[in-house]
Amino acid sequence: MGISDRIRHGGEFAPTTTYLNTATYGLPPRRAVEAVRALAAELGTGERGGSGDFGKIEEARDSFARLVGVDSARVAAGGSVAVHVGLIAASVPAGAEVLFPEGDFSSLLNPFVLRGDLKLRYAPLEGLADAVGPQTALVAFSTVQSADGRTADCAAIRAAAAAVGARTLADATQSAGWLPFDAGAYDYTVTGAFKWLLCPRGTSFLTVGEAAQESLVPLHGGWLAAADSWHSTYGPIGELAPDARRFDEPTAFLAYHGAAAALPFVEELGIEAIHAHDTALAARYRAGLAELGHTPVPGTSPIVSVPGLGEREPELHRAGIRVAARAGHLRATFHLYNTEADVDRLLDVLSC
């Protein structure tokens, strides 16, 4: 049974639109919606003694770690990519050179830009590895570009960084969940899990390599950053957690109760199967676009952007099709709850 059949028979999703906008927000499965509702109901009645279950944070951490191929000890939980990037940006020495792709997502760039005392360089994504130089201290890039779905040559970038002793920061927000991803290959990774990983917004993960953990100071560390959290609720922390948990943000329980249900669902389906499903739908759409005389940004990712068609997004919205207009492009994205019928519906409206 393929993913489409498993999804349809499982009843995990019930979109009321032709939803092709996962790169903005992934639809949470029914089990995640129910988990959030259950906690909200408990909080409303006062039945729960606190604001949520810390065990759910650990379940989500463990599930994410399995999905990206690292030990849970390397994963910090939080709510925002920008906050995680800010922690890394704060660790870079003044005057250091940080290299980015041109036009990458602002949450990855701005924490470094706002420092005001770093040397920032930008290069085309396709030439990022070649742009790494002897003065480069950090290469920060999205593995898949949000605006148009272009995929970075991650192996070449890692090799170029290693050759000069530079560290790497990979933003996997637009890849984790459909593209096999090894977080252990990077010094740092950040992942907003509310897109392809189907978690509620407010779920974000930071991974830190063992050699890089001492480079970060847990600037936003509260009592949860302590080795013994429940005995560190008042006064200075005596001992930090020995692993990446020291970098945890105080998390939103509603989001993490949902994440603890959503992430195992992605594990059950399997990234390889999701990859095959998503990219097949994208290929069908690309072929249909060619027949209509439109040329999308080249690539094979399930994020498909067509330059110059962004102005048609309102028309598609009125037709019940959810896509996005980004950087002048019409961006459609295909994920596990989508079918060939969704692709054909979009092409049909675009043909008019």
At a glance:
With 352 residues, the chain is an alpha/beta fold. The chain has two domains: 3-28 and 270-350, Aspartate Aminotransferase, domain 1, CATH 3.90.1150.10; 54-268, Type I PLP-dependent aspartate aminotransferase-like (Major domain) (Aspartate Aminotransferase, domain 2), CATH 3.40.640.10.
Assign the structural class, choosing from mainly alpha, mainly beta, alpha/beta, alpha+beta, or little secondary structure.
alpha/beta
Largest sheet: 7 strands, mixed
- CATH hierarchy: architecture of the largest domain: 3-Layer(aba) Sandwich
Task: Give, in spatial order, the strands making up the sheet with the most strands.
Answer: 2-8-7-6-5-3-4
> What level of helicity do the residues show?
25-40%
Average pLDDT, all residues:
96
Count of extended strands: 12
The number of helices is 11
SSE order:
HEHHEHEHEHEHEEEHHEHEEEH
Name the shape in a single word: globular
Strand content: 15-25%
